[in-house]
Every structure is written in structure tokens, then in C-alpha cells.
Amino acid sequence: MDSFVGLVLIFNGVCNALFSFVFGSLVKCIGRLGCFIAAALLNCGCLLLMYFWDPLGDQLYILFIISGLWGMAGAVWQSQVVGRIVL
Fold first, then answer.
1. Quick one: which of 11, 10, 16, 18 has its CA closest to 73?
2. How many C-beta atoms surround the C-beta of residue 23 within 10 A?
3. Distance of CA 8 to CAs 13, 34, 48, 57, 86, Å?
4. For residues 73 and 39, is the Cβ–Cβ distance under 8 A?
5. Phi first, then psi: what are they for 55, rounded to 5°?
6. Which of 6, 15, 34, 73 has the fewest CB atoms within 10 Å distance of its CB?
């Protein structure tokens, strides 16, 4: 699993970049608070999954799922908080 660290981080960055655009448009529909609540739930769900998950060698896809979900939540924090401070 050590050889996939770079790929998992790249996947996190790609999800973060893509979902920044998605949440930028979604904030018009559900509001900034709704996006923050969704991101907080995603982060808590990822933390619980990482806490209770016992990794096995054939479950590499779960690393990518966790990384993608964490990137999705990170997109909210980065796009909405920085957007609020700058604007």
C-alpha cells in the first residue's frame, strides 16, 4: 500500500479541484450554511470510517474513496471560507 500514497494524494487534489466548482454553483441553491453542514458531515463520516476500518491488502479502493470524500469536503472549506474572507 505504500506505493499508492502519491496516487491517493493526486486523487484527493483532483476531487478537491472538481468539487470546488460544484460547490461554487451549489451554494446558490442550498446556501453557504448547507454546504458547511454537508462538508462537516463528510469529514465526520470519513473520520469514523478511518477509525473503524481495518485495512486489508485487497481493499485499496477504500483509500481512494476516503481520499475523494475528504477532497470533496475540503473543497467546501477552501472555496467557501476563502470566498467569504476575500469577498
1. 16
2. 24
3. 9, 28, 19, 15, 30
4. yes
5. -65, 140
6. 6
Tens of pLDDT, residues 23-77 = 888 888 999 899 999 999 999 999 999 999 998 888 889 999 999 999 999 999 8
DSSP state of 3: G
Residue 80 is predicted with a pLDDT of 82
Per residue in 36-50, pLDDT (tens digit) is 999 999 999 999 999
What are the φ/ψ torsions at residue 6 (nearest 5 degrees)? -65, -45
Residue 35: Cβ within 10 Å count: 22
